[in-house]
Design brief:
With 224 residues, the chain is α/β, with parallel strands linked by helices. The chain has a single domain, classed as P-loop containing nucleotide triphosphate hydrolases (Rossmann fold), CATH 3.40.50. Helices cover 32% and strands 26% of the residues. Helix 3 crosses helix 4, helix 3 packs parallel to helix 5 and helix 4 packs across helix 5. The longest helix is centred in the last third of the chain and has 18 residues. It binds adenosine-5'-triphosphate (ATP) and magnesium ion. The site of adenosine-5'-triphosphate has 13 residues, from strand 2 and helix 1. Magnesium ion (MG) binds next to helix 1.
Length: 224
């Protein structure tokens, strides 16, 4: 990427469903995200946190408004262009992990690289698993791991290709205190040392000290 990562959210609305079943997930949201900034997004269940991540990470296109990143405006891009944007620039830790069940931890990471047509030596994959405390677990498949271990595989996978934008949805929800702090330190390091942009959805108060700011959502709006 040529310039430092940034994302500008300008009057974004997003709805799901039609007519009577319609839900407004985001209602006229404005927000700015900068390089070297660790933002936590909090708020009650259903307030629009995952929707916001989906829109700024190019997983969903807003109904209204614009999302302008340092790699260009992504709102209004077609599906192919959005997929290319995500592959090149984004790393995601999803609520529920979304690992491939048939693949080992190491193979899940290798698959992520292959989808991006990136080549890294095997030791880079081992180092990424080491960094989240999973050395020795590289050959295990998701159904042989605990929730916290799966979550850490998902974190390692999101960071392996060194994305400019990292989006994490409750990345410490199934982690014990020590593992949670370790993941937070890893993410913090990425922001401070490498100038990445991190948006993390979480209710986990233990993470607050690691963040530069905390945004709070309610009913599809940022309220503070
Ligand atoms: N795929 C979907 N289809 C229909 N409605 C949806 C869908 N995804 C989200 N919604 C609705 O949009 C609103 C915002 O949902 P969102 O997932 O962004 O909330 P959230 O803040 O991430 O909640 P949680 O903390 O429970 O993960 C909710 O009312 C939800 O029911
Ligand atoms: Mg959510």
């Amino acid at each position: 990427m040529s310039s430092a990562p940034s994302i500008s959210v300008r009057g974004v609305s997003l709805s799901f469903g039609k007519s009577r079943a319609r839900t407004m997930a985001l209602q006229g949201v404005f927000a700015e995200f900068q390089a070297g900034q660790f933002t936590i997004v909090g708020g009650p269940s259903g307030s629009g946190k995952t929707s916001l991540l989906s829109v700024i990470g190019g997983l969903l296109s807003p109904d209204e408004g614009a999302v302008v990143t340092s790699a260009g405006e992504i709102s209004g891009m077609d599906k192919g262009a959005l997929a290319a944007f995500r592959r090149q620039h984004c790393g995601f830790v999803f609520q529920g992990f979304r690992l491939f069940d048939a693949l080992s931890a190491a193979e899940n990471l290798a698959m992520s690289l292959a989808l991006r047509q990136m080549h890294l030596p095997r030791r880079a994959i081992d180092a990424a698993l080491d960094a989240v405390g999973l050395s020795g677990k590289a050959r295990l498949r998701p159904n042989e791991m605990s929730g916290g271990e799966k979550q850490r595989v998902a974190v390692a996978r999101a960071l392996l290709h060194e994305p400019a934008y990292v989006f994490a949805d409750e990345p410490t929800a199934s982690l014990d205190r020590e593992s949670g702090l370790r993941v937070a330190e890893l993410l913090r390091d990425l922001v401070v040392r490498k100038g990445r942009l991190l948006v993390l959805v979480s209710h986990d108060e233990r993470l607050t000290p690691f963040a530069d700011r905390v945004l709070s959502m309610e009913d599809g709006r940022i309220v503070s």
